[in-house]
Amino acid sequence: MFRSDTLTNAMQDYVALQLGQRFIEPQTSDLHLVFKDSSTTTPLIFVLSAGTDPASDLYKFAEEMKFSKKLLAISLGQGQGVRAEALMKSAMERGKWVFFQNCHLSPSWMPSLERLIENIDPDKVHRDFRLWLTSMPSNKFPVSILQNSSKMTVEPPRGIKANLLKSYTSINDDFLISCEGRVSEFKSLVLSLCLFHGVTLERRKFGALGFNIPYEFTDGDLRICLSQLKMFLMEYSDIPFKVLTYTAGQINYGGRVTDDWDRRCIMNILDSFYNDNVFQDGFTYSPSGVYKQISTEIDHTGYMEYIRSLPINDTPEIFGLHDNANITFAQNETFALLGSLVMLQPRSGGGGGAKSRDEIIETQAKFILDKVEHPIPIGPVLKNYPVIYEESMNSVLVQEIIRYNKLLSAIHSTLNDLLKAIVGLVVMSQPLEEMSNDLFNNTVPGLWASKAYPSLKPLSAWVIDLGSRIQFIHTWIKDGIPPVFWISGFFFPQAFLTGTLQNYARTEVISIDTISFRFEILKLHFDAIDKRPKNGCYIRGLFMEGARWSADLHTIEESRAKELYTEFPVIWLIPEANREKPESGLYDCPIYKTLTRAGTLSTTGHSTNFVLPVEIPSNKPQSYWIKRGVALICALNY
Hints:
Layout: H1 7-18, H2 31-36, E1 44-48, H3 55-64, E2 71-75, H4 81-94, E3 97-101, H5 110-118, E4 130-135, H6 143-147, E5 150-154, H7 160-169, H8 173-176, H9 183-202, H10 219-235, H11 241-252, H12 260-273, H13 300-308, H14 324-343, H15 357-371, H16 378-384, H17 393-422, H18 430-440, H19 446-449, H20 459-479, E6 484-486, H21 493-508, E7 515-521, E8 537-540, E9 543-545, E10 548-550, E11 555-557, E12 565-567, E13 571-577, E14 586-592, E15 610-617, H22 622-628, E16 631-633
Parallel strand pairs: 1-4, 1-5, 2-3, 3-4, 6-8, 14-16
Antiparallel strand pairs: 7-13, 8-13, 9-12, 9-16, 10-11, 14-15
Helix pairs in contact: 7-9, 7-13, 9-10, 9-12, 10-11, 11-12, 15-17, 15-18, 17-18, 17-20
């Protein structure tokens, strides 16, 4: 057995021991060396990763080569193909450099680019001509261009220290003293802004604890914020923190943010860096005091020396996260690595009497067919739970059964088709071939996932979970409406929540639009509850990530070391009309269906993975838990 959070480090140590240290260290691309190997017919390609932009490096290199005025750049996209082709032909004749950015955004023009490169005649084209390209990894990018080009991978700097070094390398003393009359404040806020930039970039490595969606913030976001900072300090007598926070958090960085909960997070992070306190002597950005404001009397060299003194490896405290976040990050890296290794497995069985691939798939298919129930007969349920005005839960039950039946039917029909295809009774179609690969790799087949509820569980755990969900429905049918609802067992929990509000609205004869939930955390275990509340409902089955619930103190508390998830007690959802939300003493905690938290944006403006926010008692400010990434989860990954 391996510890998943240490496996990647162990593999790095093994590679370094067997092959050498340089095989685990990032290698920088020297444009001078790459350029020497290029020619008029050999394009130079920057293979991008999230958060990287090699444009500034290329412009700097062009200046060194005296080609800054001969560099023609264009960002590809819809309708740019004709212009790009004209630029390339002109550059070929006049001996200029052409820089096509973001080729992955113009897949329809890639065949034309391939034709243009193939038709380059080295005897007729100007010898100074060079073609520079940037692209994210894409299956639409022409293979022939890749094979006949010089390729450079562009990795973003890793860690707060590396990001700060990159940010301060792009500025100089002239810039730091350019804000006349406000030099001290300007220097302090520049450091704050660069730290904020590093924090937002590096939070992505923590997965959903950092941001629900890994946004591609770039150096351009930082540059425009620095320009605005200088402009506003020059124009206003008082420092306009409200304006600075809005432009940076809602527009420059926030313009990329599509999730409301991520926007709440980034605004709270920004508040820690953009405030009056940063001007105080000895102000620290982290509890340990490692990241702090330094004397504004020093010059650019002094700032670079301070940045070089920072630790290479970040601790979660600078991000406002718990130390357990490092375990989550390490586990995510390990599972991604192991997932790639699984995909590289051979598809044919070995010798020595081992089972063949088809035999393994057949065994897996028969096992699942035996474990998964057939669709639930809907007729008896409609008879015992008719649609009535007084009880919306009857409609919720019927809707849940209809959804689960579609999934159960798909599982049985596709598995039976696959078993027939394995023995040659029917054709092994592409969907069935993909399904067999999924069964072999212990992942949920796409044919089922498209008809199923969101889940990140591997196939074996997913089948067990599906059995538990169907058992929850059977218990409801047999014993009547349960006193405590297992919210994780609902296919579509929003319908259940709406049904609860609807019951209250019809009982009290008031508009459902005026009703919202008040929340009460119970001390009783769900097994001890045998009766439904008069109003609202009890829910169970939630897990807390990023913190834990203290039953003794009746408040949210810090997680224990190495305890990533904890069970949350029963919550009483109490409907109230025209309710005013408390302003303090609570943490507005989102509930998500899975640990990824990200989903598709729906018409409500929320992610399809989002269920509802719950108000949890807290003795700390709400911003503390927001930066911690605290959330309630319906289902874990196992």
